[in-house]
Amino acid sequence: MGIGVASASALWVGSYQRRMPVSLDRMYENALDWAHLPFLHHGSFASIELLDAGDWGWRATLVSAHRGAQPEAFVVQLSLDRKHRRWISSTLEGPGAGSEIWTHVFEYGPRDIAIQADFFVPGVALDQKARVGAGYQQLYQGLYDEDEAMMLGRQNALDQGAAQNSVESEALDLGPFESVQKTQGLDFDFNGQRWRLVADQDELIVHSLTCPHQLGSFVGEAVIDGAITCPWHGYRFDVRSGDCLSGHPCKLPKAPRVMARGGRLIATQAAP
Ligand code: FES
Ligand SMILES: [Fe+2]
């Protein structure tokens, strides 16, 4: 039987457990981060409109985006209860109103947690319980696959920033000129940060692989029409100027310069 007691008319239909090498802080950040839902989880959510938010949690209108299904709007409230290391996501209006998901966190170490999500759904006949429970488990498996990868990427970027050596290299040999593929580019580390070199026509462009918003990773994201989009919250950046094209007050960091010298590519620190 699951933990927690939801509203009396809702039936416990199943639970989902997962152990993850992330900290409690990363997990709480993720729970409070309503804005990532339609971007990182675009297979499940089409849009979100915030109604209220604070340290306590958030309330928002979400629109579903399940393949082959009509989009549906519903109001969800997430209430974080740090004292009991849990949060409760309640559907307040729309399809599934009255259902609650209670997620508890168990901390095994500084970067070793487990979560258990228990699903309570109203109006489910007993003979449908297993089917409905399996649907929720599948949904949560997919959402946590996406969340865990992003939380690990953010932690990595934070660690890299903290460990950054104050003595910076003057130059880095990136290898032969041919190593830059027009379509894929070349990813490299230089002075504690990750960068990508791409060739656009005859121009070599270097851009950060870390989003300035919350350190989301651009690894695997293509430059389209001179811009890159962060998969976490959807911010778009011009890779040449670094400007945020979606109007947020942040900018890509100044990239190293890369020049071809004697058939090799050399990265050097950009002038401040
Ligand atoms: S980390 Fe939020 S948009 Fe990139
Ligand atoms: Fe998420």
Structure in a nutshell:
By secondary structure, the chain is of the alpha+beta class. Helix content is 18%, strand content 40%.
List keywords for this structure.
272 residues, alpha+beta, Alpha-D-Glucose-1,6-Bisphosphate, Chain A, domain 4, Rieske Iron-sulfur Protein, 2 domains, 7-stranded antiparallel beta sheet, 3-stranded antiparallel beta sheet, elongated, binds FE2/S2 (inorganic) cluster, binds fe (ii) ion
Q: Helix tally?
A: 3
Strand order of the largest sheet: 1-7-6-5-4-3-2
Strand percentage lies at 35-45%
Helix-residue proportion: 10-25%
Label the overall shape.
Answer: elongated
Instruction: Identify low-pLDDT runs.
Output: none
Q: Write the H/E string, N to C.
A: EHHEEEEEEHEEEEEEEE
The CATH architecture of the largest domain can be given as 2-Layer Sandwich
Mean pLDDT: 91
Major sheet:
7 strands, antiparallel
Bound molecules: FE2/S2 (inorganic) cluster, fe (ii) ion
Report on the structure:
The chain has about 270 residues and is α+β, with helices and mostly antiparallel strands. The protein has 2 domains: about 150 residues, START domain (Alpha-D-Glucose-1,6-Bisphosphate, Chain A, domain 4); about 100 residues, Rieske [2Fe-2S] iron-sulphur domain (Rieske Iron-sulfur Protein, 3-layer Sandwich), CATH 2.102.10. A 7-stranded antiparallel beta sheet has the order 1-7-6-5-4-3-2. The chain is elongated and about 75 Å long. The mean pLDDT is about 90. Bound molecules: FE2/S2 (inorganic) cluster and fe (ii) ion. FE2/S2 (inorganic) cluster (FES) binds next to loops.
